[in-house]
Amino acid sequence: MTGNGAAPVSAASGWARLAGRHPLLAWLDAALRGSGQVIFMDNPLTGLLNFVALCWGAFAGGTTLAVAIGAVVGNLVSTAAAYPLRADRAALRRGLCGFNGLLVGAGIPTFLAHTPLMWLLLVFAAAGSTVVTLAIGRWFDARKLPGLTFPFVLTTWLVLLAAYRLPGLPIAALPPAELASQASAGGGLASIDAFIRAALRGVAQVFFVDNPVSGAIFLLALAVESRWCAALAAFGAAAATACALAMGADANVVAHGLWSYSAVLTAPAIGCVFLKPGPRSLLYGAAATLFTVIVQGATATFAGTLGIPALTFPFVLTTWLFLLAWRGLGTDAGQ
Amino acid sequence: MTGNGAAPVSAASGWARLAGRHPLLAWLDAALRGSGQVIFMDNPLTGLLNFVALCWGAFAGGTTLAVAIGAVVGNLVSTAAAYPLRADRAALRRGLCGFNGLLVGAGIPTFLAHTPLMWLLLVFAAAGSTVVTLAIGRWFDARKLPGLTFPFVLTTWLVLLAAYRLPGLPIAALPPAELASQASAGGGLASIDAFIRAALRGVAQVFFVDNPVSGAIFLLALAVESRWCAALAAFGAAAATACALAMGADANVVAHGLWSYSAVLTAPAIGCVFLKPGPRSLLYGAAATLFTVIVQGATATFAGTLGIPALTFPFVLTTWLFLLAWRGLGTDAGQ
Amino acid sequence: MTGNGAAPVSAASGWARLAGRHPLLAWLDAALRGSGQVIFMDNPLTGLLNFVALCWGAFAGGTTLAVAIGAVVGNLVSTAAAYPLRADRAALRRGLCGFNGLLVGAGIPTFLAHTPLMWLLLVFAAAGSTVVTLAIGRWFDARKLPGLTFPFVLTTWLVLLAAYRLPGLPIAALPPAELASQASAGGGLASIDAFIRAALRGVAQVFFVDNPVSGAIFLLALAVESRWCAALAAFGAAAATACALAMGADANVVAHGLWSYSAVLTAPAIGCVFLKPGPRSLLYGAAATLFTVIVQGATATFAGTLGIPALTFPFVLTTWLFLLAWRGLGTDAGQ
């Protein structure tokens, strides 16, 4: 620890002591860590900065206030639901029962109209995501495989698919369901500046925010806890953006970060979070990042046929495959 | 046991003694219990009453004689197939190898035209459902998770999807495959009477019967073995019907019980069959019932894109998730 | 061993000795065995003959040279990728890390245009199929269930679905995505000769080759190691062809072997490879063969909605179900 790191460290340990004493503060602490866990960080400060980035997006454009509020509500509700469901207390305290609910809470107001019924459903779905989190955790127990953001993906997909049959939940911004047909050639990004903004938007899209400044704040939030992770997330965003462009993907979609947000999570997940960091895991993480781009396109086609977004399923599938294939998983897994 | 319960009890034990002596009667007993197991009851009288309800539907409208015959054939064939497949004898005797075949046998004539080839396929598919039942049983072994009606869902989906490519199996009544688009507002049910009939039809739709009287007989069949289960099934039907209406679902579809039949199974499954009954399991079962309504809409959209019905997949998925998430599953599971 | 088998046997053991000494030859040997493992044979001569059949198809029509080259490249790359991924050495030597890559390498040039980017992607996807192979292997570990060709199916599906969004990978020959609608009656095959050619094409279609002579060579390649397997593969092809015709499938599709290629694999898999051969396994294999035909139609409808081919998923799903349902799997499994 360097000298100029001392102040936040003592503030952090002060907060940890406080949170240990009051149940309500413990809940808040778990929720803040849950916000951090979206990007693998068990750190309340990361969670706070993520929230700042969400608010920036709501203020400066790229998302709405309802999304930021939904994220907070989803996080608090899903964390609270973990208590009566008797989740493992250590996991709960580390925020592992909140990050899927946060994403459910951000996702639903992104795609559905902001009616009172939507808010009611958001609360129910956030609590439901905790059930899914515990179910997946049990299912993967023996294999020491993390559930990642799959509970968020499954819960949100179910809600959005159901909305098509429920006029009480008007759809605001879902891609219309359509049969696959090959797109025509997609142009490119005009400048290095446009490329950097596309990559930063990719980082922000993890939280449904379409804003490069928010992306930079999310990277900062990562760096607070781990500079390696921040570097790998930035690498994932840049590599996926470049890769998608090289294969002719629609430049407009790439510019909004929609080809890279899953890779933003895969690169650190394989490169330094779940495997012991080192040259082998870095190379393996780079391969997983490219694989994620293929799965991103595949999921977009599959989900597009059904009229729903890909969400972070490409990250989930790729990371599960690459973790399972890794010899020695369970002995050197980080989380 | 009250005094007026003595006669059926002694009749039941007489039947059990008889069934223990003759292999053919043992097979019949297993099939009757298989009929009961569709609604979780290891009771031949429940099975008999279920058959009465099916016949009533065929006689009074709401289903056809072919569906009732298909159910009996499917039940007998799938139970018989369990012997050469060397299924666990205790499970076989309790009817656990027959209820999926019964549903396959009821489902195929509901959706395909009644040709000789259809009947041949029905026999083959019913036997196939026993293979799927044993496969799922093995797969879930270590987790003490029940296969529920998934073998029925998978087998029937495979047959119906295949029929699209097989003109020798003319489709009689499948929803045309269509891309998802949000329905417009759906009206409501005119009266409390219409509501009750919708809920009772939901109970009957578990067996593909669209008739409220049949629904009442199915509830009676449940009550023969467990009044709790009957009450929870009725609750599931009513809650799902109300919930679907509140979210604007098409009132015509709701009136035929097609938004509630899965919840009819989820509510007792979570509330009193697979978890130890009590206030916690009841609350949990109520949450699972609401969750089932969302999954019902989602599955209808997904399956509708492929041109197939949702069947009881919403019940299966929800019950698996809620059972897996329950801390202590395997120590207090009922079945 | 009969007298006239002595020469190939000593040649084979000479080759095995040679392969044991040089790493490069060990790699070639593993790749040849990988080619044989597509049809379950741990035999380099089978692998060589399979390659001859592929070349015959490229020369005489029924496939292209690019498919034959892609198969070789995919096989070599995926086998090579197994070394740094630290695959189990025994499995690697038996070719179990190469057969999925071979099929990925044959499949991609069958469906996508032959551009430099396609070749780059082919190499990456072949290596990716090794990751999927190891992941599935780990996942199925405890159940002693083989991964079969699922890694090939998943990897190829992902690449093809992604191609719809990537104009840099022009689609050459994918079925257009379309909603299911029942086909009209399909005619029949004109003669017994046409029937035999359809069945032989079914054998060849396992390797994406639409040529009856190649089918005969693939059967010969099987017979080199196991006449039982060759007979069962031929039975699977004939039974599935007859069965599809009896149910009214489009005769033109049947004539190209597209209703039978999965059954070509299921019949030997259940009949003699993974279960102890005997009258029970043969009967069971026959049932599995018919089941495969239903799954073939179902997968074609499902995948057709998404604009992708069924590949060998029907074989994979059926074989998994029938193996899991078999009492005693793991004690008498062959592989």
Automatic annotation (TrEMBL), chains A, B, C:
<keyword id="KW-1003">Cell membrane</keyword>
<feature type="transmembrane region" description="Helical">
    <location>
        <begin position="203"/>
        <end position="222"/>
    </location>
</feature>
<feature type="transmembrane region" description="Helical">
    <location>
        <begin position="308"/>
        <end position="326"/>
    </location>
</feature>
<feature type="transmembrane region" description="Helical">
    <location>
        <begin position="95"/>
        <end position="112"/>
    </location>
</feature>
<feature type="transmembrane region" description="Helical">
    <location>
        <begin position="148"/>
        <end position="166"/>
    </location>
</feature>
<dbReference type="InterPro" id="IPR029020">
    <property type="entry name" value="Ammonium/urea_transptr"/>
</dbReference>
<protein>
    <submittedName>
        <fullName>Urea transporter</fullName>
    </submittedName>
</protein>
<feature type="site" description="Important for channel permeability">
    <location>
        <position position="312"/>
    </location>
</feature>
<dbReference type="GO" id="GO:0005886">
    <property type="term" value="C:plasma membrane"/>
</dbReference>
<feature type="transmembrane region" description="Helical">
    <location>
        <begin position="253"/>
        <end position="275"/>
    </location>
</feature>
<dbReference type="GO" id="GO:0015204">
    <property type="term" value="F:urea transmembrane transporter activity"/>
</dbReference>
<feature type="transmembrane region" description="Helical">
    <location>
        <begin position="51"/>
        <end position="83"/>
    </location>
</feature>
<keyword id="KW-1133">Transmembrane helix</keyword>
<feature type="transmembrane region" description="Helical">
    <location>
        <begin position="229"/>
        <end position="247"/>
    </location>
</feature>
<keyword id="KW-0472">Membrane</keyword>
<feature type="transmembrane region" description="Helical">
    <location>
        <begin position="282"/>
        <end position="302"/>
    </location>
</feature>
<comment type="similarity">
    <text>Belongs to the urea transporter family.</text>
</comment>
<dbReference type="InterPro" id="IPR004937">
    <property type="entry name" value="Urea_transporter"/>
</dbReference>
<keyword id="KW-0812">Transmembrane</keyword>
<feature type="transmembrane region" description="Helical">
    <location>
        <begin position="118"/>
        <end position="136"/>
    </location>
</feature>
<dbReference type="Pfam" id="PF03253">
    <property type="entry name" value="UT"/>
</dbReference>
